[in-house]
Specification:
Strand content: 15-25%
Distance between the termini: 56 Å
Number of helices: 5
Order of helices and strands: HEHEHEEEEHEHEE
Strand order of the largest sheet: 1-8-7-2-4
Number of strands: 9
CATH class: Alpha Beta
Helix content: 25-40%
Number of domains: 1
Oligomer: single chain
CATH topology: Oxidized Rhodanese, domain 1
Largest sheet: 5 strands, parallel
């Protein structure tokens, strides 16, 4: 008898799913418990901006996955998430610049027992070159602001 593994249930992903920025906004709007976790660096938040979830009555969690200048993994990432979001059934939507670091963070938190981890595949700035940014939170014209 074959039992279905979590990777088989998610199409081979080590977390629940990849979703678009607009799907992320809809999930954050529909589910009052859902949290957006922006895993970019302090420099990115300051220089580029952050998602603005005020219309949803929420704030994004700003937790670095990697820190500059060494691009070292944040050794406290899992414990910081656990402290801020103790319920492991809370939907967690991870976002970075274009979707790479957030994929890693979503996988890490899924392996830590969080069952509803999503990668926001387009990221905040999106994928593409400087003259053709076609994906991402900003390109989707979702609310954002400069970090105070």
């Amino acid at each position: 008898m074959h039992t279905t593994t979590s990777r088989e249930r998610t199409g081979g992903l080590p977390y629940k799913a990849d979703i678009s920025c607009k799907q992320a906004w809809a999930l954050l709007k529909e589910n009052t418990d859902a949290r957006l976790v922006d895993v970019r660096t302090h420099q990115e938040w300051q220089q580029v901006g952050v998602p603005d979830l005020a219309a949803l009555g929420k704030e994004p969690l700003l937790l670095e996955w990697m820190s500059l200048p060494a691009c070292a993994l944040n050794p406290d990432f899992k414990s910081e998430i656990s402290a801020k979001v103790p319920a492991k059934d809370t939907p967690l939507l991870f976002m970075c610049k274009a979707g790479g670091r957030s994929m890693q963070a979503a996988a890490a938190m899924a392996s830590a027992g969080y069952g509803a981890c999503y990668n926001v595949a387009g990221g905040f700035e999106g994928a593409g070159n400087q003259s053709d940014i076609t994906t991402g939170w900003m390109a989707a014209e979702l609310p954002w602001r400069l970090k105070a």
